Amino acid sequence: MSLKNDTMINTVIIDDERLAIESLRWEIDNFCKEIKVVETFTNPKDAISGINYLKPELVFLDIEMPELDGFQLLQLLDYKNFDLIIITAYNQYAIKAFKANAIDYLLKPVDPDELVSAVEKVKARRKDNVQNKNIETILSKLLDDHKSEAQRIPLLLSNKVIMVNAEEITYCKSDGAYTHVYLEDGNDHFVSKSIKNLEKILPPDIFIRVHKSYIVNYKKIVEFIRTGNGELVLSNEQVIPVSRTHKNKVLKILKIL
Q: By residue range, what is the domain housing residue 59?
């Protein structure tokens, strides 16, 4: 049976944080009565199957997810005939790119007025029978822009925010609710952000999680030591442990497996 009807916009929400989904869903229920959330996903791989099957008219997509980010998810979809509203927690580059490509986006935490405005745009397009820009075209342009610009990462320190080029980061080490970020020039910064949250703003085409406490710039890996679950030797001679959970992913990225 088709999920579509004349009055409601059948919608899917994708975000790796359950609390973020619950918060957005509450705002939708209270401020956007024409939106019908038919399914939510915290696992992007499940979301791919879900979208292909459910064929929603609108998707809210968190663009910064570990293992498989929003750009990668869109590339893997078979069904792409839906309106898209991007959700993002940061990133001046991303916001600039979304604006340039006329993509609706919401900043976390989602503001109700901005949510209503984004949904109104979707409704207007549907009323005028204007389809949102082809997602494949949008994605291609975004990825080209993403590769052509230096990726700048904001690091929140105790009393200021500094911007660093992503490729200058060699590795990151967890320290409870904080993270040590080590740069290729030998400097390091104590960042007021957990490694889980930091992972969301690091470019997934450069950084990989190799351990619950470590993220590394894979371009800085010079050696893999086959002892236990393995260890990585980086260009600064730092040795990083690989956990059993992340070993296969590391081996695949290094084209060893």
A: 9-148
**Does some domain include residue 2?**
no
pLDDT in tens, 148-181: 454 778 888 888 888 888 889 999 999 999 999 9
- Predicted local confidence at residue 140, as pLDDT: 65
- Statement to judge: residues 81 and 133 lie in one domain: yes
> Are both 138 and 181 inside the same structural domain?
no
Same structural domain, 117 and 182: no
Weakest-pLDDT range from 1-5, 34-38, 140-144, 148-152: 1-5
- From residue 66, how far is each of 63, 72, 149, 175 by CA, in Å? 10, 11, 22, 19
Residues whose CB is less than 8 angstroms from the CB of residue 206 and which lie 6 or more positions away in sequence, other chains included: 151, 166, 167, 217, 218, 219
* Cβ-based burial of 90 (10 A; exposed 0-12, middle 13-18, buried ≥19): middle
